[in-house]
Amino acid sequence: MIAVKGYAAKHAHAHLGPYSFERREVGVHDVLIDIRYCGVCHSDLHQVRDEWGGSIFPLVPGHEIVGTVSKVGSAVTKFKAGDLAAVGVFVDSCRKCDNCKKGMEQYCEQGMIGTYNAYEYDGKTLTYGGYSSSIVTAEAYTYKISNNLPLDRVAPLLCAGITTWSPIRHWQVSKGQRVGVMGLGGLGHMAVKLAASLGAEVTVLSTSVSKKADASKLGAHDFVVTSNDGDMKKYRKHFDFIVDCVSAPHDISRFLKLLRTDGTIALVGLPPESVPVDPFALIDGRRSLAGSMIGGLKETQDMLDYCAEKKIVSDVEVIPIQQINEAYERMLKGDVRYRFVIDMATL
Ligand code: NAP
Ligand code: ZN
Ligand code: ZN
């Protein structure tokens, strides 16, 4: 077994603190990655605080992982020691079901295996995430990343990037379309960059007036403060597509009314509570409310390659791991521009 240092929550609501554990030896199809940076996703916070239920402790979060390969198994072909590599939100899936065969491993019929807070298919090995010194993963579930981008700013692409890219592609966002982005956090700021890169006319729908100047720098054309009913009214029946990246309960029906005929809101945010929907807001204009979860293996690699080509990276605040608990408090207040990334050298 390989000894690993990390940060874990020992039980729900506990602060994260140092935690030592072991990972499996490098198998023939595996790579060992020395983790250099790990992004901090709001899903980490939801799970550490057991807001979705079913969290397994001790919990080592982190699924926006980038680092350097230090060892490869004998059958590995994609990587060699010294290469950069990345790991996202899942580390395995059944590899046999229709969804896996179609490259939608995130919707695996057996259930994908999360990078942390999950049991592997043996039913007893708990997965531990990227707030740690190293990780062993199957090469098939490990991504190639460019040498030409700042590594700390690449990390958030592994969740925030792919989670917004997948619906943007699935609903065929294209040049000239009117796209709304609800919640300018880690996911939201990537949604703005990615939709704008495809030529869409992007409007940020935010509760934070202080983010207005940033929104335009990120590529947004307009900014709406959602508490302002007058501004919201101006945008009625305006958008072709909205991606909802909000982490807390909110009134979705107000936003459905902003869609044009046949428009769609794709929900990616995962507030812990159910959200009511006004049927009138949905049936008027044949609107759709849909959901989307991260992205598949090929789709994630394609997104990473696209971002490398277009030089799209996340806006980050790099923190030492010792500041992770404070970072969670700031994330809850919406005080992050726009993703915390842990420098794992501080571990
Ligand atoms: P984040 O960085 O904390 O951003 C969330 C944003 O939501 C905030 O910046 C804020 O934006 C807005 N917001 C927060 N509280 C709000 C409230 N009470 N009312 C209205 N708006 C509020 O979080 P994130 O990492 O981007 O994650 C966002 C959500 O997506 C989380 O629930 C996370 O679990 C989920 N997620 C889902 C997937 C998936 O596969 N579907 C993947 C990753 C994450 P403004 O200041 O602009 O209002
Ligand atoms: Zn995430
Ligand atoms: Zn499957």
Describe the structure.
The protein is of the alpha/beta class and 347 residues long. It has 2 domains: 2-158 and 315-346, Alpha-Beta Complex (Quinone Oxidoreductase, Chain A, domain 1); 161-291, 3-Layer(aba) Sandwich (Rossmann fold), CATH 3.40.50. The protein contains 11 helices and 16 strands. It has helices spanning 42-48, 98-101, 151-154, 160-170, 186-197, 212-218, 229-234, 252-256, 279-283, 297-310, 324-332, and strands at 2-9, 16-23, 30-39, 65-72, 84-87, 90-92, 113-114, 134-138, 178-182, 201-206, 222-225, 239-244, 259-267, 288-291, 316-320, 339-343. The strands form 4 sheets. Strands 3, 4, 5, 8, 15 and 16 form a 6-stranded mixed beta sheet that branches. A 6-stranded parallel beta sheet has the order 11-10-9-12-13-14, covered by helices on one side. The chain has a two-stranded antiparallel ribbon with strand order 1-2. Strand 9 (178-182), helix 5 and strand 10 form a beta-alpha-beta unit. Helix 4 (160-170) packs across helix 5 (186-197) and helix 4 crosses helix 10. It starts with a strand and ends with a strand. The relative contact order is 0.16. The mean pLDDT is 97. One zinc ion binds next to loops.
